[in-house]
């Protein structure tokens, strides 16, 4: 007993498109059950496709692509379990829900039905209203899963396009920016601009180009998902001087103070100086963006100490702790972790940004076997804290 192929009509239910009716496949050799299911399916405005043997069922399921399958377990030429198992092993088959119909009510049979890929199990004799309700429930689940899969696909495609565009922009920008930086270096080193005020503008341009190159390097590292570590003994004075040189004029123009509170001399910490510089460039750029005129940004460097040992002895010096505190508007509690995700920007942010700087900072700190997080500063603002261990004894 069969039906014609899918055709348009009323009664569309979750799991089927608006252009066609739901197609229910039934593998059953009991005419009483067939007639009962036929009537119920037609009352729902669905269509029924019926087969009476396992041999016919497998080929029909692959070609007709029904929305749901009802499989009897005991057939003259086999079991519905084997039909379902074969269907699940076929990568080209549609992942439709399967409900087993059987007089076997023992736990072993039920467990086997789920193990071969079934979603539900209805024991004969059954109420047809219950069977219809179960079909509707599984169609609704299937529809939700299909919608989520489609949304996930769209998100992945969007992310891929954005990453491709970003890679193209990074590739196209790095070469000309490097050329501009080299040109500015030549102009500065040869003293081609004598007027102090113009020389100041030249220096500002050099710093901006260096910052742009740092950002491009961060983009490349984020795209690759990793960074190369070059462990050397840190020179904190050189690090702070380079940062002050890059940001001094920008902070001065905005009338924001920049202060460095460095670790005492004589403490040896081994890490990647260039990578830490790039992390601090991002943090100081963020602090400048969010700090109002008259505020001050403080970079405080201290010794990070390892936890006490199980025997009660103090831990040995284990690295570095750096705090960058500003007096900006602060970060909402719900955003304190999210801001380190790629392309994420705080919902209350009113300044432009790419949402990649802090993502790079987290990846870099984790590559250095450390961590970074954000806290509230007092009396206002934010404090970014990064801790990295000494990579060599």
Order of helices and strands: EHEHEEEHEHEHHEHEEHEEHEE
Task: Return the structural class.
Answer: alpha/beta
Q: CATH superfamily assignment of the largest domain? A: Histidine kinase-like ATPase, C-terminal domain
Give the biggest beta sheet: 5 strands, parallel
Strand content: 15-25%
Strand arrangement across the biggest beta sheet: 2-1-3-6-7
* Strand elements, count: 14
CATH A-level architecture of the largest domain: 2-Layer Sandwich
CATH structural class of the largest domain: Alpha Beta
Secondary structure: helix percent: 40-55%
If you compute it from the alpha carbons, what radius of gyration comes out, rounded to the nearest whole angstrom? 33 Å
CATH topology of the largest domain: Heat Shock Protein 90
Mean pLDDT: 80
The separation of the N and C termini measures: 80 Å
* Whole-number tally of structural domains: 3
